[in-house]
Design a protein that fits this description.
Helix content: 25-40%
CATH superfamily: Alpha/Beta hydrolase fold, catalytic domain
Number of domains: 1
Order of helices and strands: EEHEHEEHHEHHEHEEHEH
Strand content: 15-25%
Oligomer: single chain
CATH architecture: 3-Layer(aba) Sandwich
Shape: globular
Strand order of the largest sheet: 3-4-6-5-7-8-9-10
CATH class: Alpha Beta
Largest sheet: 8 strands, mixed
Radius of gyration: 17 Å
Length: 281
């Protein structure tokens, strides 16, 4: 699949560039460090969806840096946006996978979310970024700027956009929500209308933070649920719309949570985002 002509030069970005964090030779036995509940059926569906749309002539991948920028900083070659198209003119979401800022676990922690949101007719992008907390936020800021600069080409509505993330990706979404794209080298643009966070024990926030949806498992030793709930509670006291869900028996990195106590959380998060759209309008 990495070398399938349908994926051109970006097939290698479907899976973590840093090969030391994943193993397996088929989609059925794919394993990712720090992740659980990887669903082979969903992985196959994602790859088939991307491949079929690419063969139909649809653009499924966008560079966020120019050739000159990538030549000056070769690490930027391993970045870009996979596009899961929804309804033309619908709002957009950017999904950010985790991986402890050591690698990007998109195949389990952002592609499935992006595909499901596109089924709900939202235009959704999954970001492949450079590992490292600051460079990852720079790439997310650049991606948001790219989307704001090309709304007609991409057929997206830039109002009340949302940022989604799991683990390290949730920190990215939260930081961009708190500080805005300009703080990380992006354009002077609005902060997201909604932030959706999975399993990350961040405690910082600002009184101006966007509405935030949070979910985590009660057996997550990497991101303890009490830390996440304390942040949400403090934001709520400030009048920031929030929603918190803690799922029994789940550890870190459950993704969509299909077949677990978290099954259906993405529907709740999408409805939370939709409520913020109504408030904005």
């Amino acid at each position: 699949m990495i070398h399938d002509p349908a994926f051109g030069s970006f097939g290698r970005l479907l899976f973590p560039v840093n090969a030391s964090y994943w193993s397996g030779t088929t989609l059925g036995n794919l394993k990712l460090t720090w992740y659980s509940h990887i669903d082979p059926n969903k992985t196959v569906e994602i790859i088939n969806n991307l491949r079929e749309r690419a063969l139909a002539g649809e653009t499924i991948f966008y560079d966020i840096y120019t050739d000159q920028e990538k030549a000056a900083d070769p690490a930027k070659r391993n970045t870009g946006l996979f596009f899961f198209r929804g309804r033309p003119g619908a709002p957009f979401a950017v999904c950010n996978a985790g991986g402890a800022f050591a690698y990007v676990a998109a195949i389990h922690d952002s592609f499935p979310h992006a595909l499901e949101l596109s089924k709900r007719r939202y235009n959704t992008f999954a970001l492949i970024y450079r590992p490292g907390a600051h460079t990852a936020c720079e790439d997310l800021a650049r991606a948001i700027t790219f989307l704001f600069n090309h709304p007609n080409e991409l057929e997206v509505d830039t109002s009340c956009y949302s940022l989604w993330g799991g683990s390290a990706g949730a920190r990215m979404a939260a930081w961009l929500g708190t500080y805005g794209p300009a703080a990380f080298g992006g354009g002077d643009l609005p902060c997201p209308g909604t932030v959706v966070m999975q399993y990350t024990s961040l405690d910082e926030y600002s009184p101006g933070d966007p509405p935030t949806f949070v979910c985590v498992g009660d057996s997550d030793w990497i991101a303890p649920w009490r830390i996440m709930k304390a942040r949400v509670d403090a934001m709520s006291v400030r009048g920031i719309p929030t929603e918190f869900h803690c799922y029994p028996g789940l550890g870190h990195g459950f993704g969509l949570g299909t077949g677990t106590a978290a099954d259906g959380w993405l529907d709740l998060a999408a409805r939370f985002w939709e409520r913020q759209m109504c408030r904005t309008n």
